[in-house]
Structure formats: C-alpha cells, structure tokens
Amino acid sequence: MSEQRLQAYVRLIEQLLSCPQGQEEKILQANAEFVDAGLLEVMEQYAAHLESQGNSDAKRLQEFTAWLARVVGLEPVSASVLNDAAQFLLETLQLVYENKGNPQQIYPIWAQQQAQFDENLLVVLPTIAQHLLEEAEQRKFGAYVLAEFGNLIQRFPLGTRWLNLELGIAAYQQVLSVRTQATMPVEWATTLINLANAYLYRIYGDRAENLEQAMLINQKALIVMTRQAKPIEWAAIMNNLANTYLNRIRGDRAENLEQAIDCYQQATSVMTKTSMPIEWASALINLSNIYINRIRGDRAENIELAIEACCQALTVITRISMPVEWAAIRNNLAIAYHNRIQGDRAENLEQAIASYQQALTVRTKENMPIEWAQSLMNLATSHRERIRGDRAENIELAITAYQQVLSVITQRGLPIEWAATMNNLGEAFTNRIRGDRSENIELAIDSYYQALTVRTQRDMPIEWAQSLMNLANTYLQR
Fold this sequence. Notes:
With 478 residues, this protein is mainly α. It contains 22 helices and no strands. It has helices spanning 3-18, 24-30, 37-52, 57-72, 79-98, 103-112, 120-133, 139-155, 161-175, 185-200, 207-221, 231-247, 253-267, 277-293, 299-313, 323-339, 345-359, 369-385, 391-405, 415-430, 437-451, 461-477. It is globular and about 75 Å long.
C-alpha cells in the first residue's frame, strides 16, 4: 500500500467520522475508487487506535466497518456458512415451486425463518441460478421459480427491506438471461416490470440513479406491452412510470410532476372504475399526492383536485376491504385539508386532524412503523397550527407526537425526515406556553442545531435556510 493511498484512506475515514449520520453512503459513493479491502484494513486499525485513546468514535467506526464489509462482500465468509446459505436458498426455491408462488402459504414459513435471510444469500444466488439455468430442458422451469421468488421476496413485509429488494433484483437479473425479448417477449417484459418496481423502491445505492433505472426499464417493457396488444399491462406500466416521475430527483421538479399526471391520466383511461376499480382507485391515491405537491397551475385548484381524487377513491376502497390503501387515502386527504386554501381555515385543520387520526387506526407503530411516523408527524404539525381548542394543550400534543416519531425516524435510518422532525420540534418548543420559557428556548435551539447537521447549505439549501432562520429568530427571543 503506497503512502499516498494510505493518506487517501485516512482522509476518507475522517470525513466519514465528521459527517452527519446517514450521509456515509453518499460519501462512499463519491469516493468509490477507495472502497476496497485496503480501506477496511485501515478502518479497523484506525478504530483500534481510537479505542486505545478512549475516543467514543471508535464504536461507531467499528460498527460501520462491519456493515461496509458485509455490503461490499469483502468480509471473509467460511465455506460452511456459504454452503448453509446455498442449501437454505435451494429449500426456499423448492418451497416456492411446491406452493406455486402462493404468498399465503409461503410467507408464514418465511416469517419463522427470518434469521436465515441474510447477505450470504446474495453471494450464493448467482451460483444457484446458474445451476438451475444451465440445462436447456429446465431453463424455463428455473426462470419461473427464480421469477416467483423475486416477486415474493420484494413484497415480503417482514425481514430486512433493503435485502429483500436486492434479492429480488438479483433474481430478476438472472431470469433475464433466459427470458429474452426475442424468445419470450411477454415474459421478458413482465420480468422487466417487476425489476423496475424493485428499483423504484430500492434502498441500497444512489436513490436518484435507482429511479432513473426504474424509468428506463419500464420504458423498455413498453416495446412489448403496447396499449393495443396488452392494454392492462400497458396501463400498469404507465401507472409505474407515474410513480417514478412523482419521486424523481433528477430533471425539473415541476416538469416531472406534469409527466406523472399525464401518465396517471393515461393509465386511468384503461383502469376505469367499472373495469378495474381497485387499480383505478390506487391510481387516484397517487394522483391526489401529485396534486398536493404540484408546482404548476393554481395552488388552490390543485388542492381541490387532490381532495376530489381522494373522495372518489374512497367510493371503492374501504377500511374493511383494503385497510392499508384506505389509510393512505385518509393520510393524503388530511394533507390536502391541512394545505387547503379554500374554505374556513379552522374547519380545514379539524378535517385534517380527524383524517390523520383515522389513518392512524391502521397505520400503527407495530404494523406500519414508517407510515405511522409520517402520519403522526403530520398530525403533530396540524395540532401545532390548530386554531380551535386550547392553544397550550395543542402544542403539548404536538411535542409529544414529534418525540414519538423520533422513536422510529432516526438520523441514520431516515436522515431527511429526522431533520424535518427536529426542525418541527424546535418550532413547537419555541411556541410552547407551558413549562419554563428559558428552558423551552434552549430545547428549541438544540433541536435546530441538530436539524442543521443534515440540512446543510450544499445538500438542502432551502431547508437549511429555513432552519437557520428559525434558529436566528429563537436567538432573538433567548
């Protein structure tokens, strides 16, 4: 190892230690040429040095080194461990085959086997797939089993979400070596649709790039799934493209939202309430989300369109028949009422609070922790801005809710949402009526400073400015 490379490793390690939690992966991606076995070796030595000095960063670096080793596949794994993983994967694929991909039969068994779904499956999957696909007479069978496994694992509600998606992506990529456009066009396009969905929700890797991949793969599937030949599949792709445009990071935000609206409207020209009521209503849920966030057009009118879309979706989706989707509609409806311009402001906030509370009857911390936290954070903001009721009590409800949110939304796991919560908590403490005023101001200042560890001028300039302005105003009141 050259002295120059050693210094580069050390600089990268120091950058990782000084950055806000949750930003490490972005730094590693920017320095991908240094992510190798040498880096891990120096990280281990650096952590040992910090530990000998009693530095608290030692534990953080040790944990991060172990995580990085697993992710990039540099951690030495014994042959017996890999053999066990390969055997488990074969048994899992056999289970998928015997139950014909039925999740009601498979998921309960997987729920008891969660500990065996680890990163080693990613290591052995290509070898197992090659074995299944090498004989010409069994290739279609092997592709079928791997495709079904991909469909099941990426939708599996338990386990480690990022790993489930990576296993799905790895399985689909193997399937596409058999299902080609020339030999099996429909199956090829179907696999592409599922692969695109996995990229849409992918956690590992660069989020912006994953969304671009999802878009490109969906557009590729449209070569076969045309409106004339396969209208239902075509509509599904248009719906997926709309979801991708809605979440897209690259390109002009206003234009991306217009593209999303156009794709949803095309999808619902096939997915009608009469012919495909569930798909139609699901598209309306997403359409309402776009209208809430739309940049172009009249803001007040966009909010009314969002409310109308939610109300239409509720004619099909009920709490009993589709509780998860029903809760999503209630959440979107609450957001729309919170931001509504038309009508009485006080009444709109009451409608928002009622809708959030309804959503939270389904979105519980135990069953849907992320969605629970998102709805609870929005409910807290509605309480903080509430006009009716006791002002002091409303703020206490908001503070309690924000603090509950932080039990799920962590700086490392969801840094952007965590920073937003800390900023909102700071605003609540700034306006708090109960308790010691000077203590509330100090709590607000601390919350804003924490938010600013993620909301930097470079990465989030608008949010950075908002939190900085809040901090300045709080110092004025100090």
